[in-house]
Amino acid sequence: MTVTCDIKELWAQFLEHVQQKCSSTEYRNWIAPIKVGSQANDEIVLEVPNIFVQQYLLDNYQEDLFVFFPKEDLPIKFTIAKSQVVTKKIPPVKPRQHPLQLNRHYTFENFVEGPSNQFVKSAAQGVATHPGKSYNPLLIHGGVGLGKTHLLHSIGHAILQKNKLAKIHSITTEAFINDLVDHLKNKSIDKRKRFYRSLDVLLIDDIQFLQKRLNFEDELSNTFEALINDGKQIVITSDKPPSQLKLSDRMVARMEWGLVANVGVPDLETKVAIIQHKAEHKGIKIPDDIAFFIADHLFLNVRQLEGAINRLYAFSHLMHLPITRQIVEQILGEIFQQKASRKITVEAILKATATIFELRLADIKGESRQKHIALARQVSMYLAKELMDDSLQKIALSFGGKTHSTLIHAWKKISKELEVNDQLKRQLQVIKRTIEG
Ligand code: ADP
Ligand code: MG
Question: What is the pLDDT at residue 339?
Fold first, then answer.
């Protein structure tokens, strides 16, 4: 059975989803101008005002598109609109409740707690209860889609709830830099600096972007210092711990001044709880065993879980069908496959690594501490941790009874090395391709 649904309806849902993810300006400039064009031969044609809009959509929302529009059945095509006049057909943008750019769904109430995020959530709540008085700055770091922005905005909401007049500003590092650039051009930079320094709370998202724009480091560093000295709260998110960011010692020290807290990948139970929370939010029922089934097959991050729920929602909503195991397999099969095709073993990793490093399998499996051999062994451990879904203990055992701390040590060492060693990076890519191909 193939799934056929109304493309326009899917598109409307996609828009609603995107609207929750981006700022209203971003939405207005980049998303709203896109129209659903003709629809024939199972193809969606999206009409874009110009190539930049198409590029923007693909660069930023490709994954999301594929969540709503099945990749294989419905290829997406683009056409450039002849007239650039934006017609009224575009779904209206609901005005944000806050002039402040806080996603209204990102609240503490909507943040599902588990061992991977309990500590960081309570730190965030502490900051929201006593802004400027507990941890300052609070730095939240962790991988993509694990809830950093969600926690950042939750802090904003909670502070505003208690004090409507609190002067809060929430901004991505990229937008912060663009804002400074604009004001530099308009010769209003001093005024803008004063604005930032007059805030009670500054929430700044994705500080890793500063790495590409180092000439703004001083300005940000000064702003941080001024605010903190005034007892004003700063919360920062980052995709890496500060020490791993390529920023000046001064900046890193500023960021480590307060509390550095990690948000990790949720365990199975937490993933199940998140799935159920999100499903409830959308008004659909997902039985326990099915929630477990989904959680067990999706392992990357929470955003991926959310994508799965959205897809199931679109399906059950449009087809008026309950969510069964069979339907889940059918609808999410594409996402699941990524895991199914990844039946990777330590043996396969060792073999591929030995080949690329021009070693014998016995060498890499042996105990030799020769530099070249030890490096190859560590590379295999790194890859095993990256590519396999088994527990670290189990993987370590497959390496001739190593402990899981040896594995983590190897992983850390190679991760660091990869940042500076392009040759190793290429070697790793070849090994990966050998294993996965
Ligand atoms: P990050 O900023 O770390 O990349 P986000 O904060 O944007 O991730 O989170 C991605 C999505 O996952 C958001 O929609 C968010 O609401 C959701 N999410 C992440 N963690 C949780 C959680 N613990 N409970 C509920 N939703 C979560
Ligand atoms: Mg984020």
Answer: 53
Q: State how far the alpha carbon of 352 is from the alpha carbons of 8, 109, 380, 437, in Å.
A: 47, 47, 9, 11
- C-alpha dihedral sign at 218, 223, 224, 229: positive
> Scanning the structure block, which residue is given the tokens 């017609």?
87
Residue matched to tokens 């020769």: 370
At residue 141's C-alpha, the angle toward residues 136 and 145, to 5°, is 135
The average pLDDT across 318-327 equals 86
- In this structure, are strands 43-48 and 138-141 parallel, antiparallel, or unpaired? unpaired
Q: Which of 209, 302, 305, 310 to mutate to test the pocket of ligand 1 (most atoms within 8 A of CB)?
A: 302
Hey, which of 146, 148, 313 would you mutate to test ligand 1's pocket, going by the most ligand atoms within 8 Å of its Cβ?
146
Instruction: Retrieve residue 257's tokens.
Output: 């001044």
Residue nearest to atom 6 of ligand 1 (CA): 147
Please give the number of the atom of ligand 1 that sits closest to the Cα of 114. 23
CA distance 164 to 168: 10
**pLDDT of 347 higher than 50:** yes
Distance 27 CA to ligand 2 centre (A): 17
| pLDDT value, residue 97 | 35
Which residue has its alpha carbon closest to ligand 1 atom 11?
303
The pLDDT tens digits for 399-410 are: 988 888 999 999
User: Can you give the pLDDT at residue 5?
Assistant: 55
Closest C-alpha to 271, from 41, 113, 437, 38: 113
Query: Residue 347: which H helix or E strand, with range?
Result: helix 346-356
pLDDT above 70: residue 88: no
